Amino acid sequence: MSLAHETSLLPMPEMQRITALFGGARVLKHRVTDRLEAHEMLQQGMPSQALLHLIEGLSILRDPISLEKAVGISLRTIQRRKETPGKALSAEQGGRAWKFAEVLAQATDVMGNQDNAERWLERPALALNGRRPIDLLTTPAGIELVQQLLGRLKYGVYT
């Protein structure tokens, strides 16, 4: 069982769940307790090690296609990051990874645990016209659709 999975079993606030996916303040090299602190950290450049921690902790990101859809970074780029772990991500790269972590945290809340959330992201959803939620994470509009669906599921509104 991965550390990310173990932490998802504990009830925790959304920001704490998101930062735990990246290895927490130790790996992020910042204490992130709100969205403004997250913005500032992403602007300064999220450490590559945080992205690597996220990928290693999630089975869904072991598939290169899902990885690229979820965080917008190719497998080859990830391999280069492993060779230079001290190099920071660009604001855009860090932002995509952060947004994916937000969606995963929301899905974990709705689905009860991280394993269920990861499986849900990979399964076609009727409310998304049979598309897999992870396939929609490539655009802001798609991310919004997935988050809206999660909100509806949380409150029992399935239409």
Write the layout of secondary structure elements.
Elements: H1 3-8, H2 14-21, H3 24-28, H4 35-44, H5 48-56, H6 64-71, H7 75-83, H8 91-111, H9 114-122, H10 140-154
Helix pairs in contact: 2-8, 4-8, 8-9, 8-10
Determine the strand fraction and express it as a percent band. under 5%
Count of runs of 4 or more consecutive helical residues = 10
Total DSSP E strands: 0
- Helix-strand topology string: HHHHHHHHHH
Question: What value does the Rg take, in angstroms?
Answer: 15 Å
| Backbone structural class | mainly alpha
Instruction: Tell me the number of structural domains.
Output: 1
Mean pLDDT: 90
Coarse morphology: globular
Main beta sheet: none
Q: Approximately how much helix is present in the residues?
A: 55-70%
Contiguous low-pLDDT stretches (5 residues minimum) are: 1-10
Distance separating the two termini: 35 Å
What keywords describe this structure?
single chain; 159 residues; mainly alpha; 10 helices
In short:
By secondary structure, this protein is mainly α. The chain has one domain (3-154). It has 10 helices and no strands.
Structure explained in plain terms:
By secondary structure, the protein is mainly alpha-helical. It has one domain (3-154). It is built from ten helices and no strands. Helix 4 (35-44) runs antiparallel to helix 8 (91-111), helix 8 (91-111) packs across helix 9 and helix 8 runs parallel beside helix 10 (140-154). The chain is globular and about 45 Å long.
